[in-house]
Predict the 3D structure of the following.
Amino acid sequence: MKNAIIYVSIHHSNTEKVAKTFAKILDADLKKPEQIDPSGLSDFDLIGFGSGIYYGKHHKSLLEFAEKLPPTNKKAFIFSNN
């Protein structure tokens, strides 16, 4: 099974620490939204998305990335660090 974690970590790198832990446990590729084309996720079986919470929402760049994803039946999860 091929896995990926897409994350945004801005201020204290706390979200990055969580993302790295998930990546280690899941043997997942770890990427920031600007490091991968949304169509490049078609090879993955499980995709995780994570960021801190900014003004009550996940980071804008993560949400914009998710909006570009093609429809799929892939397994996915989202996490946040507040």
Remarks:
- The first strand starts at residue 3 and ends at 8.
- The chain is about 25% helix and 35% strand.
